[in-house]
Amino acid sequence: MKKLLFIITLIATSSYATSQNLHLYGGSDYTEYLGCLDCSRFDSKSIWNAFGDYGSSFSNTSIWNDLNNYGDDNNPLSPWNTVSNKAPKIVDDAGKFQGYLTANP
Fold first, then answer.
1. Contact in structure between 35 and 61 (CB atoms under 8 Å)
2. Which segments of the chain are extended strands (E)?
3. Which residue ranges make up each domain of the chain?
4. Using CA atoms, how far apart are residues 84 and 43, in angstroms rounded to an integer?
5. Could you list the pLDDT tens digit for every one of the 105 residues in the chain?
C-alpha cells in the first residue's frame, strides 16, 4: 500500500502537462523499458495493468514484482530502495528527462 500511495502522490503533485505520457526506464544504463506511469490501466504498456508486462506482479519488467530487480526494495535498481542512486528514470513521449521514480529522499 505504501508503494501505491507513493506513486499516486508523485503523479498528483506533478506539475507536468498531461498532453504527453510519462514512461519509466530502468537498468544500469536506463535502456530497459518498465512501462507507462500515467497511462490508463487498460493500456498494455501501463504499470497499472495487472495483466500486462509492466503491471503484473509476476513480470520481470514490473516494479510490482518483489522478486525482480525493479520490485525488490533491496535492489539498487528498484524505485523502492530508499538509498538507491540508480532508480528508474521518468521520460516523456519525446524522450525528455522528467525525473526519477525513487523512494530515496
1. yes
2. 22-26, 32-36, 89-92, 97-100
3. 21-105
4. 29
5. 566 555 544 554 454 455 699 999 999 999 999 999 999 999 999 999 999 999 999 999 999 999 999 999 999 999 999 999 999 999 999 999 999 999 998
